[in-house]
């Protein structure tokens, strides 16, 4: 291994690429250019005297065995750097956060802004994924926190409630429905993204409706678009634009949203700062 110096920024870029899989996705999260990340990775290879990544056009970025080891140690290094800054009187460092996709705009985005306002030397590296994969990444040590629905979570996670979403019936704007029974014989558009899909179908069952699912999609915007075209109705707990649709309240319990973290890992100061900064 080379004795040359490397920087925490280079390590943070490597970890971000490992989390996101491509230079473009990592660059968008870090608010830098893909070329800046590419240069930093090349410099880190030279500093350490080993190749950490394989970068092939149209195939994303793959970690070499040395790269995987470097990412594991790099995460610890970034956490330690944050703790050092905290011990000197300022919270600083990187917190790796996962988020269920439909919660990112309404829960995570304002939370990141609140953390940066309170602690300008912090940075949130976030990734969106489905609930099962986010749980695995938490338990594997790849993430510090994850914003999830409180539904089917592992007992090895500690959770703190951060919000709640209330299910509603989504229909076309001119639809006369006033409750779920009014659409029982019409086709349903299902947001096919567990646990949202599980919850929507459970709400239907609780209200005595057995839906006829006509369309499935993993996009809330596609749900809205199909409903706006009169191609069905849906049950959502996520906010969507009002364009062409109407919301009908349902007598269903709110679905809690939690910040989850691995119980076996003591939270770092920057993780505690993020939890405290929740708006």
What do you see in this structure?
The protein has helices at residues 8-20, 23-30, 34-48, 65-87, 104-118, 131-139, 196-206, 220-228, 269-276, and strands at residues 53-55, 61-63, 93-99, 122-128, 145-149, 157-165, 168-172, 187-191, 212-217, 234-236, 245-249, 255-262. With 279 residues, it is an alpha/beta fold. The strands form four sheets. It has a five-stranded mixed sheet with strand order 4-3-5-12-6, sandwiched between helices. Strand 8 (187-191), helix 7 (196-206) and strand 9 form a beta-alpha-beta unit. Helix 1 (8-20) crosses helix 2, helix 1 packs across helix 3 (34-48) and helix 2 packs across helix 3 (34-48). It is elongated and about 70 Å long. The N and C termini lie far apart (45 Å). The model has no long low-confidence stretch (mean pLDDT 89).
Give the gist of this structure.
It contains nine helices and twelve strands.
Give a quick set of tags describing it.
279 residues; alpha/beta; 5-stranded mixed β-sheet; 3-stranded antiparallel β-sheet; 40% helix; elongated
Shape: elongated
Cα radius of gyration in angstroms = 22 Å
User: For the terminal residues, how far apart are their CA atoms?
Assistant: 45 Å
* Strand segment count: 12
Mean pLDDT: 89
Which bin fits the share of residues in helices?
Answer: 25-40%
H/E series: HHHEEHEHEHEEEEHEHEEEH
Q: Which spans of ≥5 residues are poorly predicted at pLDDT below 50?
A: none
